[in-house]
Amino acid sequence: MSETLKTASVLAFERKLDPSDAMMSSGKWEDRDHSERWNPVTVREKSVRGTISNRLKAKDQDPLKVDAAIENPNLQTIDVATIPEGADALRVHFSLRVLPGIGEPSACNSPDYKKKLSDVVRSYIETQSLAELGKRYAYNLANGRFLWRNRLGAEKVEVRIRHIFNGRAEKIWTFDALSLSLRQFDPVPQAKTSLDEVAALFAQGLTGKRHVLLDVEAFVQLGSGEVYPSQELILDRVQGQKSKTLYQVNGVAGIHSQKIGNAIRTIDTWYPDPSFPIAVEPYGSVTSEGKAYRQPRDKSDFYSLMDNWLLKDKVPSVENQHFVMAVFVRGGVFGEKSE
Fold it and tell me: Which contacts (CB < 8 Å, 24+ apart) does range 182-188 have?
C-alpha cells in the first residue's frame, strides 16, 4: 500500500491539550492556602512621556535636528498591571483538559491514508507509550514555564497541580518551580515521583484511558510592582490609541490560552543541533528569533518526517517520532493541495 498511498488532500487534527486563559490575582505569600484572601490583578491606564530612542537615518543625525526631535515629547498611553502595596505575591490560575484521540484526524478524505496513520500511531504507542511526551508536558507545568516573564526575578515559585475528577481534587502535587530547569527535562530527585505521576496522567488522557482535567495554580513571590499579562495585538492602531493594550477578562489581567499552550508544548529538543527547548511547530518556528530550526532541506520538518514514515515506510529516529506525535497533539491542518 505504501507504494501507491498519497497524502490526503483534507487532513486536520484537533489540539489535544486545551488550556483555559490564566487569570491573575495578588496577595501575600503566606496566604497560599487561603484563596479568599487573594484579590484580582486589574488593568489600568497610565500616561507617560517618552524620549526619542529609535535609530536615526543619516540625514537626521545633525545635532540641531536631534535636539529638535528630543524637544518634542513622545506622549503615550499604556496599560499596566501591578501587585499593590501590602501584597508580595502573584497567583496565576488556569485549567488544562487533556483530550483523547492522539493521531486521530478530525477530517481526512482518504480512508487508506487514515488507516495507515492509525497503524503508525498505534505502533508508536505500543513501543513508546507516550511516556516521553507526558514527562515533558508535566515538566513544563511543574517548572512554571507558562509564567513567562513573571518567572524572572522571582524569589520563590510554587506550582500546584490538581487532578479534578467528579468536581473535586482527586490528588494534588506541589513543586518548587525554580528547582526545575527551563533548558532540559531532567527532574531533581525530590520531584521525580510526582512528575512521573503527572506524566502518566497525560499519557492516559491522550490515549483515552482516563478523563484528565488538571487545575494548575502558580504562586510567585516577587514583591509589589509590575506584572506581565498577555499583550493584545492591535492590527489597525489609530492615532492617539494606547500604545500597549493588556489582555483582561472583566477587568482582571490574564494570559492568553494560546500563550499557556505554547509554553506547555515547548518540549522540542530533538531538532538538529539543539541548544534549548523550542515549541513544537511543523518547521520549528521561533518567531522572536525569526528562525525555523527544522528546515525542509534537512528533511527534519514535520512534513518530511511524516511523509517518509507513512508513504515510504522510512521510520524516523525515536526522537523524531516523539516530535511527529507532538505535532499531532498540537493539532493543525496538514493536507496536501492538489496540483
Answer: 182/143, 182/145, 182/277, 183/276, 183/277, 184/269, 184/277, 185/135, 185/136, 185/139, 185/267, 185/269, 185/277, 187/139, 187/142
Sign of CA dihedral 114, 120, 122, 124: negative
**Phi, psi angle pair for 115, to nearest 5°:** -65, -45
Q: Are strands 74-83 and 225-227 parallel, antiparallel or unpaired?
A: antiparallel
How far is the C-alpha of 299 from the C-alpha of 268, rounded, in Å? Answer: 16
- Please check whether residue 177 is in contact with residue 139, taking contact to mean a CB–CB distance below 8 angstroms: no
CA distance 273 to 86: 47
Highest mean pLDDT among 72-81, 104-113, 235-244: 104-113
Residues 14-71 have pLDDT tens digits of: 999 999 999 999 999 999 999 999 999 999 988 887 777 777 777 667 777 776 666 6
Q: Is the dihedral angle over the CA atoms 181, 254, 15, 311 positive or is it negative?
A: negative
Nearest to 261 by CA among 12, 18, 13: 18
Domain ranges of the chain: 11-52+73-333
Helix axes 318-330, 111-128, angle to 10 degrees: 120
Question: What are the pLDDT digits (tens) for 130-147?
Answer: 999 999 999 999 999 999
Radius of gyration of the chain (CA): 23
pLDDT confidence tier of residue 239, bands split at 50, 70 and 90: low
Distance in angstroms (rounded) separating the CA atoms of residues 327 and 320:
11
